[in-house]
Amino acid sequence: MTVQQNLLEIDDLTVRLPEGRAARPILDGVSLSVAAGEMVGLVGESGSGKSVACRSVLGLLPERARTDGEVRVAGRDVLTLSRDGLKELRTRQVSMIFQDPRASVNPMRRVGDFLTEGMRAAGVPAAAATDRAEELLDAVGIRDPRGALRRHPHQFSGGMLQRVVIAAALASRPSLLVADEPTTALDVTTQAEVIAILTRLQAERGTGMLFVTHDLELASAICDRVYVMYAGRIVETQAATDLFDRPRHPYTAGLLACTPRVEPDAAPPRPIPGRPVSLAESPSGCAFAARCAHAQERCSVEKPVLRQYDGQGLAACLRADEGILL
Ligand SMILES: Nc1ncnc2c1ncn2[C@@H]1O[C@H](COP(=O)(O)OP(=O)(O)OP(=O)(O)O)[C@@H](O)[C@H]1O
């Protein structure tokens, strides 16, 4: 029997960054996977470690970072790849889309150069690279792609520039896309357009995607599965619809309850009390305990591990099997 290998497997990843003589913990035992063609969400508040987890996939952690665990893309451990191996990974297998498109492009260079440089470096002749760049711009809904190739980034709106960045990320036909809050810097209508483009292209091309957002509702709407992070740890993972209908971790339930709803009979949004903590600040036990309405004494002592309940997903909560959220 052939065992289906995941495209991306992060296995028990721990990241620490040296700070003076000590090392500040950033991620603790993070495990997640993305299968070929699967759209997977990674959700959490600011500072929970989403970007660090994403960066680990492309081997983009700070050089001084100390890591344990493995990050495998198509079976190869990114954390042990040579410089050439990393270059090959980034030019052939994995592309990343960042939050702010203006930070991803060189303002002095034309969009055509930005889109074709990777292809040219891979040996594609100039004319063929230009034709492909035009096709890519057309695929992300940019009108007059040939004219767009001659323009500079400042001649594009934020939304249009993010489309250009998506086109560039797809140029190498990657099997995995990592999108780190790709619409956070855009206005609401533009966000919707960019999400629609990303999900369409992901489905058409069968690209695996790790989609990072702080918006749990958005992740539940567009992803197959979702991981929820809190203070450097994964606290819950489920199929997207199950997570939305039946969260198992009080933090996930809190994120859903604080989202404003437009339905007339909807409950008003309830904010999660307190503020998010980083892994470094989190005491022993469950990092969410101080903000959790269901916490008991043992929650601030015992560290919960991810466990399965009712055959549905995994949650790291000592009380998840008591039906506290029903
Ligand atoms: N290069 C770095 N040097 C020092 N600390 C860092 C570095 N990068 C991240 N951190 C710290 O790691 C923690 C996780 O940061 P990260 O950017 O991954 O969070 P995030 O969930 O992506 O937040 P946001 O949604 O605001 O981007 C934070 O406490 C942050 O301050």
Automatic annotation (TrEMBL):
Keywords: ATP-binding, Cell membrane, Membrane, Nucleotide-binding, Transport. It holds the Pfam family ABC_tran. Residues 8-256 form the ABC transporter domain. It is a peripheral membrane protein. The keyword Nucleotide-binding applies. This is ABC transporter ATP-binding protein. PANTHER family: DIPEPTIDE TRANSPORT ATP-BINDING PROTEIN DPPD (PTHR43297:SF2), OLIGOPEPTIDE TRANSPORT ATP-BINDING PROTEIN APPD (PTHR43297). Belongs to the ABC transporter superfamily. It comes from Streptomyces colonosanans. One of its GO terms (molecular function) is ATP hydrolysis activity. The keyword Membrane applies. It is found in: Cell membrane. GO terms for biological process: peptide transport. The lineage of its organism: Bacteria, Bacillati, Actinomycetota, Actinomycetes, Kitasatosporales. GO terms for cellular component: plasma membrane.
